[in-house]
């Protein structure tokens, strides 16, 4: 593997690590934290959209 393809492979592996799927509980905790920052309660539809975006 040459240097360029090795670098691309490393970058690809890192992006896969960053995009690992969250559990429902983890996604929910992130959503609650975000809503607390916004100072308002989320609707169920907003929560579902947020969870889909995280995955």
Structure, described:
It is built from three helices and no strands. Helix content is 76%, strand content 0%. It has a domain at 21-55. It is globular and about 30 Å long. Helix 2 (24-38) packs across helix 3.
Which short descriptors sum up this protein?
disordered N terminus; mainly alpha; about 0% strand; single chain
Q: Could you say which overall geometry the principal axes of the C-alpha atoms support?
A: globular
Helix content: over 70%
Order of helices and strands: HHH
Count of helical stretches? 3
Rounded to an integer, what's the Rg over CA atoms?
17 Å
Main beta sheet, described? none
N/C terminus separation: 31 Å
Weakly predicted, low-confidence segments: 1-17
Strand content: under 5%
Question: What class would the helix/strand composition place it in?
Answer: mainly alpha
Mean pLDDT: 66
Give me the count of strands: 0
């Amino acid at each position: 593997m040459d240097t360029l393809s090795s670098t691309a492979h490393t970058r690809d592996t890192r992006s896969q690590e960053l995009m690992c799927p969250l559990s429902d509980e983890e996604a929910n905790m992130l959503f609650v934290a975000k809503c607390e920052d916004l100072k308002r309660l989320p609707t169920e539809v907003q929560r579902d959209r947020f969870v889909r975006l995280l995955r």
